[in-house]
Structure formats: structure tokens, C-alpha cells
Amino acid sequence: MSGPVDRPGRAWTWRGDALLLDLDGTLVDSAAAIERHTHAWAARHGLDGATVVAASHGRRDVEVVRLVAPGADVAREVAWLHRLSCDDTEDVVAVPGAAALLDALAPRVWAVVTSAAREVALARLAAAGLPVPRRLVCAEDVVRGKPDPAGFHAGARLLRADPRRCLVLEDSAAGVAAGRSAGATVLGIGPERVPTAHHRVADLRPVSARSRGPEVEVVVAPAAAPASGTARGLREVVA
User: Fold this and answer.
1) Is omega for the bond preceding 70 within 30 degrees of 0, making it cis?
2) Residues 2 and 234: beta-carbon distance below 8 Å
3) DSSP 3-state assignment of 191?
4) Containing H/E element for 210?
5) Euclidean distance between CA atoms 103 and 110, whole angstroms
6) CA separation for the pair 156, 19 (Å, rounded)
7) Which member of 6, 24, 29, 171 is catalytic?
8) Which of 14, 68, 179, 239 is most open to solvent, judged by the fewest CB atoms within 10 Å of its CB?
9) What value, to the nearest 5°, has the Cα angle with vertex 147 and ends 146 and 149?
């Protein structure tokens, strides 16, 4: 399916088989906690906290450690970050609109694909008051993290869906790149524009979903952020 460039005042609509949702920054606002943990870890190694935070967006802890502290004991440092992330979930809340969107989706049509470890992901979902998905792809489940598409391919397989008929919801450049590489349509979430996302919203409040036979339809209300381009699976809804 394909559609024209979005125009002001018209809804952005996608129809396909399944949704693959990132966790941090997409369903859960954990930015304050992650920044706090990352700064604490950076201080342990005499690193600039802001630089490490910027490098961590969308990446697994193991990849961040290898990137910014190549001489460190990776297993030990990842374990340190893991424990802190599980124990400290202060300030972790649901992204506005996340609960309503998940409530509207049948469990069979959505999965969470996150760079977080499973225990961390479950702790953040609980802190945010969001349901645990039946299908959850975490850091332990892939050899290569985002921007590699392996996680989204794994999520699509769990849902028995073609990645090209999936909608990825992502907040980071690495995650958007992974979704694009998987062949999916990508809806960017958050205040920061990622040019390669097919469309963007500041949060999930303008996003609604419903079943249409075997398909799922996602509609972004026209008051949301302007689109950045066209994509497979996009349609316009005429008011």
C-alpha cells in the first residue's frame, strides 16, 4: 500500500498486520532515570556524562560500554548498570497516551522490542503501570542491537508477521534506522525530529488503533506533528 504526502488538516493512517513498539521514550518516559544512571556510571570512569548519555540513545548497555569505555570489564560494568536500572525506577512514568493505545490493541498484534535487559524492561513497565506484553524482545534476545534490525525481525517472527507489514514506534535515531532496515513503516515518537521516520508525534495521545478484520489500523489525528515523508502502508483519511 502507498499514499500521497500528508497535508495539513488530514489524519495520517497506517494499516497492516502488527505493531512493534520500542519501550524507553516510546511507551515509557524513563529519561530522567536513565540520565541519572548514566551520569553515575560515567563518573565511575571519569567520562563526560553528557557524551555518554548521547551515545546511549537506542543502544544496549553492552554496546555503550564498548563504545565509550573500550578498556573496561564489559560484563562487570553492564551488571552494575543493570542492577541500578532495576532498583531505581523513580521518575519512570508512562508516555502520555501509551496506556490507552495498548488497551485498544489485541495482544496478538503487538510486541515490545527494547534495548533494555528483560528485568529492566519489566521493572520500568511496572513502574509506569503498563501491561506486560505477551511478546517481548530484549537485549538478551539479540546478538546485535539497534540500529541493526535483528530485534524488529525477532518481534515480527513472534507475531508471525511480515516486517514490511509492521508499524514500528520509535524515539531514537538508532531505533528508527533499525525499523527502516527491517522494512517496516516507522512512526517517530517524541519532541525530537528524526528525519528518516515516516511520520512523527510528540507523544501517543493523538495515536489511536482499532482492528479492521485481520488488519490493525493506526490513525494519527491531524493536530499531531507534521509528517516527514511518504511510506509503504500510508494512507490519507479525508475528513
Assistant:
1) no
2) yes
3) coil
4) strand 207-212
5) 11
6) 9
7) 24
8) 239
9) 80
Q: Which long-range contacts (CB under 8 A, 24 or more apart) does 62-70 make?
A: 62/139, 62/145, 63/145, 68/42, 69/45
C-alpha cell at 3: 499514499
- Amino acid identity, position 11: A
Please choose, from the candidates 78, 231, 58, 54, the residue with its C-alpha nearest in 3D space to the C-alpha of residue 147. 58
User: pLDDT tens-digit profile of 193-231?
Assistant: 888 999 999 999 999 999 888 899 999 998 644 444 434
* pLDDT tens string 57-99: 878 899 999 999 998 999 999 999 999 999 999 999 999 999 9
Lookup: cell for 85: 536500572
User: Which of the four pLDDT bands, split at 50, 70 and 90, describes residue 192?
Assistant: confident
- In whole angstroms, give the CA distance from residue 239 to residue 236: 9
Q: Which residue bears the cell 498486520?
A: 17
Q: Considering the candidates 17, 22, 61, 171, report the single residue annotated as catalytic.
A: 22
Active site annotation includes 148: no
